[in-house]
Amino acid sequence: MGIPLSAFPPGVRSTYVLDQLEGERIAIPGSSSVLRIIASAKETDGRIAVFYRAAVPTDSSISCSHREAYLAVVATKGSLRIWIGDTCRDLHPGDFAFVPPGTIYGYQPLAPYTEILALTTPGNQMDLYRALGEEYTGILATTHDDLDAPKDLTSAFDVQIEDDWQPPVLSAWLETDNCLPRSVEAYFLRANTGPQWMFGGVLARPFVTAAQCNGKFSISTLESSSAYPERPFFDRYMSFTSVDHCFCVMEGLFRVKLKGDSDWTVVREGQTMVVQARQFFTADIAIFVRQRAVPRPVNANSDRTKRPQLGRENSEMWTENPRWHLSLYPLYPAGGCKGRDGTADKQPNGRATSERIRDDGNPVSQEGALCNYKRRSVHHVDQVTRAEHALHDQANLLPRRQLILAFATLSITMLIVAIDQNGISVALPTIAADLHAEDTISWAGTASLLANTTFQMLYGRLSDIFGRKTVYLAAIAFLSVGDLLCGLSRSAVMFYVFRAVAGIGGGGIMNLSMIIVSDIVTLEQRGKYQGIIGSMVGLGNVIGPFMVAALIKRTSWRVFFWMLSPLGALTACSTYFYLPSKSRTAGFKESVKQIDWMGSLVSSAGVILLLIPITGGGAYFSWNSPMLISMLAVGFVAFLSFVVWEWKLARLPMMPVEIFSNPVVVVMLAQSFLFGSVYQAYLYYVPLYLQNAHQFSVMTSALLYIPLVIAQSVISTLSGQYISRRKRYREVIVFRFGIWTFPGAIVVILTLVGTGVGCTVQPTLVALQAHSSKYRRAVIISNRNFFRSAGGACGLAVSAALLQSRLQATLPQEYKYLSQSTYALPDSEVRHVSAVLDAYMSASHSVFILQVPMIGLCFLCTAFIRDRGLEPLEDHDR
Fold first, then answer.
1. Does the first or last residue of the chain, that is N or C, have fewer Cβ atoms within 10 Å of its Cβ?
2. Does residue 511 contact residue 781 with C-beta atoms inside 8 Å?
3. Which of 360, 390, 420 is the last residue in one of the domains?
4. Is residue 871 part of a domain?
5. Model pTM?
6. Which tens digit of pLDDT belongs to each residue from 447-468?
7. The CATH number of the domain where 327 resides is what?
8. Which residues, at least 6 apart from 579, have a Cβ–Cβ distance to it below 8 Å?
């Protein structure tokens, strides 16, 4: 015969079934709620308690914490608001919350009737409610509760009332709420998300595994259907050496047969069955069933070495970790851990299959939880997802005073980088004469650009692995040492090498400054702070040329680099003291193993072998030379190999291909490439145009450049304020590319260009973060900067080729050699100088006209940008 239904837990260890709405019912004073205890210390030797809690809305709420107890909560009916630490969520059926020891929490029912299924350990936590409450003989929940809320609880119970705790405000679901953490910590889990396993027609979704609770228990949802003709999981008896099971049926009809019984025990919707350890049983699905399975270990020192022998009738099985115990096959969502909606292919042979769930961002329906899974090889996608989610979350929102100090440090460091990168262009003719490198001096900029671009992608992942502060200090060290050695250089080759060293540092500082800002302020405030960072870049663009011009006139170009080096050292000290840092849990050796070494090597080879011929073509290499063609071919193959490696093999890729699945992100990365091309052309060729075509002095050229910088700085700050206040960014991006297409006089043009740049650099950065996962915050910033730098390199190459071709066509015959050098004008009679100036004027105009269609393309791309505001989506950044 089957197991008879009971109305109360038996009070001793045994296998039993509780009927619907039955259990030990206790009314909780001051809460308008009733506990229905399914199992407690009496049935589990003091280790676990499982209970339902039903409640109606009430204005009262209590926040409390436990010294040693764990609490796991699954919403089954209605809805409730629950806060854990500084995070608050609204839970609906299927949503889950986990509270470890030492964490303040509380919850409040919202729906007319709310019910949760909860598990706590140790099991004697139920004694607290028995002591405070009273037996309840109703059915659902008490609506008239005149008892006072408990204020003083004796030290015999593990509970502390937090009277002064102010519950946090409600916040949106994040992407982290779709995945299980890797260690013991408080967390939420959205319904129908998290890791999933499929075995013979049974779908399992764990809420808690041994990793989250130090091996004390595990909770999972099991779903299946009688539509599967063969289910090998159910066609043999099984037992568990040291684990109790509690099956709470949410829907459908579940059948269990104990070994030795001739009849099946039918467990219907709302009923609960507890199966003790070492009890052999088998199970069957009569109709579609959804249930919560709660394994409860009896012996904490259970044998973890005995391997299960699934399929043998008398095998003993260990299941503290469902992933290992059931040998289930994982199902992975398309874009990492997100909400999903899918149906399942019927497996005619009932065998376990590796499949992938279709992802459209919607929760699974009650009827279609087991229909239509997509087949796909998923081991690499899961590996990347797990590796990214295992990274240390370095978000660290700062109080106002510390934020000001940290932000001042970042701003000053960015100012120094901008001065370093833009001031040198004025000094190049002087440096070339001093180092006897008139024919090769452009390699100074090329070397810095190559190093900057090559390391852009790597910095994001390095900061994820080793921490932002550590990598930021390393970048400052590269910049300071590089500048010091540039000032000490005695040959052109030494100078080019040390400019590359400084370029490595400068690129890292720009990358990490943006990444750190995204760590220390919320998404809503990032526009404001990123705008100020952008204004520092503009300010450095104008200070640099003035500083260099003054130093060259009074002392030497070497003093410029000697001044920047100690300034970098001072910012390193400020960074060490004022920039926050979260400690890393992984050791140095483990962190080094996480670096994508192959991706770094192949990407560096690809970038270098592509950029050298692109930037040197026409000047140092003939466009049809075997050397240039060979480098382009090898570079293309290397970059293609890098893409394949990142897509298929990299465990922690620097450029995850999944970021290109979002069309808005693709459009904005394309915009970054085009913008980099145009912006670098303006930075490089406007000063040359003013000095060569108009014969302005270096100081006058710098003065005429001020309108661009002032407009860029002011508009960058204002656009950031607009984004933060209005929580919209699309209008700013459309405005910036639109205004950039209007012509005018030099000052007006430069003012318009500066306005466009001010509306460009930081708003696109905020927009990209709004459309990206928080786990890829550093990666998306690094890749955006990489595309911008690569665009700058290509734009300079195309502009240089155009300038040279126009000069070759328009210069007088005796001055055609000037097409190979744009740094100086010849000494000659006035009539010849006039002809040369006309040629430079015409060639420069051609370069500027070239930028118009490129900016026009950027403007057209804005039509594809969807402004979703700055409110975090359920699985996006906070």
1. N
2. yes
3. 390
4. no
5. 0.52
6. 888 888 888 878 888 888 888 8
7. 2.60.120.10
8. 406, 409, 410, 468, 469, 472, 516
